[in-house]
Every structure is written in C-alpha cells, then in structure tokens.
Amino acid sequence: MFHRHNRVWLSAGGWQRAIQTVSPAHARELMRWAENDWPAVVRRSDPEPGKNILYLGLTAPPDQHTGAKVRIPFSVCTEDIVRFGAPLAIIGAESALPLAWHSVFSELSDAATSSKLEFRVYGSAAMQAITGLPYLGAASDIDLLFYPLTNAQLHQGLNLLNLYAKRLPLDGEIVFPSGRAVAWKECAQALENPDRARVLAKSLLRLDLVHVADLLAELENPA
What is the mean pLDDT of the chain? Predict the structure, then answer.
C-alpha cells in the first residue's frame, strides 16, 4: 500500500508516458529525472482516483533569482513502477545540509536511533540528498516525518522535536499507523487538550478534521 511521501522509481516507458501528460515546460524536468533514475514522490490522490493509477509529483530546485519552486504533478499506471520505498531515512540527509546544521542534526539523528524512533526526511533536504541539486537555502526548513507506534514513542518523539527545534528549523508531520499524518507542531499543541482538540489529518485520499483521541487510539497503549 502506498502512502504520501513514498518514493517511487519508474520504468523508462513509465517516464515516457508521464512526460506525454505534462506541459512542454515541465517535460524537460521529467526527462532529467528519468535520465538520472531519481524517484518521484507519492502525493494525495484525486478525489476519484482511477483504477491502478498512482498520483505522483516532483519539485524542481528553486529558481536561482526568484526562489520560486516549480511543483509538477502527474500520474502513472502502477504497472510502470519498478520499485518503491519509504521516504529517506534521517541518517541519509545529513550530508545535504549546510555545515552549520551538521552537528546538531547528527545529535538529533543519534537520539532518535538510540530511542528506536523512526524519523525520515522529505521535502528540500531529502531532494538535495537524493539528487545533489541545490534545494536548500538560508530560509529552508528540515521536513521530518515521525512514525510512532506507541503512546510512549509519540511523547518521546515530540520531546525530541521540541528540543531540537530550538536549534534547527524543523518542520514536518507525525504519521500514525493508519497513514494519517498531522503537522507535529499542531499535534503537540492539541495534546494539551486531547479529549476536545481536532487536527487536520492528511491521508492518501483525503483531508479531514479529526479528534486527536481517534489518532491516539491507533497507537499501542493509547492514553
């Protein structure tokens, strides 16, 4: 089963078919991805997804002059997928980050690993690590995905995020076992009043306002 932010590698034929569905202005970027065998990323599906269709996207590096990012959505048949995998592991992103962030990010990565917490990276930091292209700038965030399995892990991970957000520009989401994802900063605030609070949850198919208690019920040993 696919989830948002999964990485997907396409066959040569799959890329060719995808290129035919985008504008000429975007075709060159897709050709670059195909030539380098870089992955596309799973995005939220259309409201009525077609059978055996997967909705993907890629983001080109920011324009050197304006800083604007070009996001290119497209779709493919699942038969065009060669392989797929989870978002980039946190340990794989450090080399792409500015040197000023390395030591603190390494501390965060080590702390997550030693606590057996699953953190992954998406967005600009992940794309720079994967492609070597210049995505990150002075105003960039480090987008993290955190996958708790238990209530204890949820609180451990949030404590780490809150601690290291004082030293790094951390952003991102908490991904619950169902695949529903919530911005970690919004989740941390909502947990102050979990019986009443609702948060915006994103899944492959929809956006929903959900009660925090419903998300906590997905975890082992829910509070």
Answer: 93
